């Protein structure tokens, strides 16, 4: 059975290829995600998950193929517009928490909101709420150097959620956490995303983590395993080139 064209995808990519210095990491990958959907990208180490997320989020420009978010052709935006899009509409949780060492935990969590011009008091309230939800409320006034890695990662997750992005890219987000804490943090992340209509693209090599997603796409050696629905290969309306 051929799936009908799906024009509800808020983020989609068609035939993405990317190589690092001639060494291919992605080969013709097509993918789509709807608003509020939690989509897991799975596969063994080195299969191209991070590269795919970096292409989808505009951090990398694919060698071939297209990325479209909310009608905007991300791959053809000038670098500054891609940066603005990432700042205003996307969130990123990496495997390593990258916090600003000079700022306290709440200031780190509030940073995307402050950069967008949100009033300091409002941004602080939102940041502290998310720190509480992620069980690091007591660390609000502590700088990253005074925290353990698992606490820093919870703060990075709070920072991503506090900004309520359109799409949250999460690359092995629970890797630095203790095994016992992973399920709880992932549940907080996925339930927050569902209640706020945030689309999540979740890269993981852990099958258990992937079970929390609405749908899974598997990669192997830079290619999508199994066939992509027809809607992800063709039949899309062209996206515009302005942000
Ligand atoms: N900056 C880089 N320079 C050169 N090669 C890279 C770079 N980043 C990734 N690669 C290579 O590209 C391929 C895909 O890597 P990628 O990190 O996207 O996979 P992954 O599935 O996310 O792996 P992991 O789970 O280990 O992060 C691998 O062969 C990797 O060695």
From TrEMBL:
Q: Which family does it belong to?
A: Belongs to the ABC transporter superfamily.
Q: Name one Pfam family in it.
A: ABC_tran
Molecular-function annotations in GO = ATP binding
Q: Which UniProt keywords apply?
A: ATP-binding, Nucleotide-binding
| Annotated Gene3D superfamilies | P-loop containing nucleotide triphosphate hydrolases
Instruction: Outline the extent of the ABC transporter domain.
Output: 11-243
**SUPFAM superfamilies listed in its UniProt record:** P-loop containing nucleoside triphosphate hydrolases
Q: What is this protein called?
A: ATP-binding cassette domain-containing protein
Report if keyword Cell inner membrane is assigned: no
């Amino acid at each position: 059975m051929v799936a009908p064209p799906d024009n509800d995808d808020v983020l989609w990519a068609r035939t993405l290829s990317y190589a690092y210095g001639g060494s291919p990491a992605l080969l013709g990958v097509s993918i789509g995600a709807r608003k509020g959907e939690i989509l897991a990208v799975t596969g063994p180490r080195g299969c191209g998950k991070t590269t795919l997320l970096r292409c989808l989020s505009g951090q990398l420009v694919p060698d071939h193929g297209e990325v479209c978010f909310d009608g905007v052709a991300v791959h053809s935006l000038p670098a500054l517009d891609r940066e603005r899009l990432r700042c205003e509409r996307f969130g990123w949780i990496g495997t390593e928490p990258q916090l600003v060492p000079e700022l306290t935990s709440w200031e780190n969590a509030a940073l995307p909101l402050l950069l967008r011009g949100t009033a300091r008091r409002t941004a602080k309230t939102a940041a502290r709420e998310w720190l509480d939800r992620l069980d690091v409320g007591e660390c609000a006034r502590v700088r990253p150097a005074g925290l353990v890695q698992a606490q820093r990662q919870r703060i990075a997750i709070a920072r991503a959620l506090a900004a309520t992005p359109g799409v949250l890219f999460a690359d092995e987000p629970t890797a630095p956490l203790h095994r016992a804490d992973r399920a709880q943090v992932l549940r907080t992340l996925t339930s927050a995303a569902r209640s706020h209509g945030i689309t999540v693209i979740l890269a993981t090599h852990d099958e258990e983590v992937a079970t929390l997603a609405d749908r899974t796409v598997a990669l192997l050696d830079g290619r999508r395993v199994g066939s992509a629905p027809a809607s992800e290969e063709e039949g899309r309306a062209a996206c515009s080139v302005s942000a």
